Amino acid sequence: MTSIESFEKLLTPDELTVISSLTTPAKIQAFLDATPYSTDPIYRCPLRVIRERKAHCFDGALFAAAMLRRLGHAPRVIDMLPYNDDDHILAVYQIDGFWGCVAKSNFTVLRSREPVYRSLRELIMSYFDVFFNTVYEKTLRGYTVPLDLSAFDRFDWMTSDDCLEEVANRLDRIRRYTVITPEQIARLEPVDEKIYQAGLAGADTKGLFKPEKS
Fold it and tell me: Which of 39, 59, 91, 95 is placed for a possible disulfide with 44 were both Cys, Cβ 3.0 to 4.6 Å?
């Protein structure tokens, strides 16, 4: 039995109807956008996300990767690495050789991207000017190589929370790339007020990272 079959076998008829409706990356994103943001200090596997209808960035990325897998994509995630801010995780996929992603975020501007990017770096840099913390700092500094979650199939990552700490730990250990030099960091301007307000529209303040003031 495949991991997808094992996942679907545990779904109720109503849950399977919901999952079966997620036939495009945009529909997966819409599901995540309609899912309340979780401020709980726990990880939820994709099965718990559909059951409890709660997810934060990590949970949402794994759920998106599982749903993209149902559409024939490899279940891959990338960790975006900041300074003085929370990490942000993307479920990435390719169509005709171009990269796109699905993501759950407390910030409106850190969600999905269309599959129009020629490289992963190009995709990541599309977030640069809108990746900021609550003290107006642009915080993106790097990203990891993609992590293929099929490596965790033997631990049932789609239906069990037990291995999710190890998934997080693996993201901490895999190869990473920087996107900005120290000289460029020194020249960064604060985020624009209108972009700041747009990014925080509808945010759950309990889930916002509390940065140190520079």
Answer: 59
Tell whether domain 3-203 is in CATH 3.10.620.
yes
The domain locations on the chain are 3-203
Q: What is the DSSP letter of 150?
A: G
Under DSSP, the state recorded for 106 is S
- Residue 126: pLDDT band (50, 70, 90) is very high
Burial of 97 (0-12, 13-18, 19+ CB in 10 A): exposed
Q: Which two tokens stand for residue 194?
A: 């209108």
For 11-39, what is each residue's pLDDT tens digit? Answer: 999 999 999 999 999 999 999 999 999 99
Pinpoint the alpha helices (H) of the chain. Answer: 3-9, 13-20, 25-34, 46-52, 57-70, 120-125, 164-173, 182-186, 193-199
